[in-house]
């Protein structure tokens, strides 16, 4: 089932910067862990889901049989979470509702929103929405050298990424750069797969485009925008 992202470009970058080894076909069967029914999560847009989601993840990660973590329909507030492996069995995170990031970028203490580390056989599903409050972040793109950067954590990834699948990603992007897969020149991404990507640009500045650097993904199914078809603009030379 497809996942819809309101903040598609940053979510794709976030996943690539945070996952060391992920396969989209893991999980299935096993125990179901409902964050509302079992941990008392509230879909009220103000109660932080972070600790409860982390508790659910720890339980699933310790299980020796496949587990499915379910975030039911509703709108949830999530400040930040780091979901670590390695885990003992496949895990599926099924997002049925909407998970929203803090509207204030200064609320971030680390340069990540949701981070998945050192996991294999992981599946993200559910038809839900990750709302990254993108219109706020876009205003601060390329902020180095500006006063407001002091409130934003910035960190370059030093993780080797391989065996990553993005499948059935549907949604909209407020920016034309709907998909960005930006990998390190010294640690290029390997074995990246894009399957059935359908992302449209909701603005008026042109169609959605896809940009890639230091990665040659394997593509199949529908690709809108065409995978890695747009050049990446050169960064401007800093001035004193």
Automatic annotation (TrEMBL):
The keyword Hydrolase applies. Pfam families: Glyco_hydro_28. It comes from the Eukaryota. GO terms for biological process: carbohydrate metabolic process; cell wall organization. It is found in: Secreted, Cell wall. Residues 1-24 form the signal peptide. Keywords: Cell wall, Cell wall biogenesis/degradation, Glycosidase, Hydrolase, Secreted, Signal. Residues 219-240 are annotated as: Disordered. One of its GO terms (molecular function) is polygalacturonase activity. The keyword Manganese does not apply. Belongs to the glycosyl hydrolase 28 family. This is Pectate lyase superfamily protein domain-containing protein.
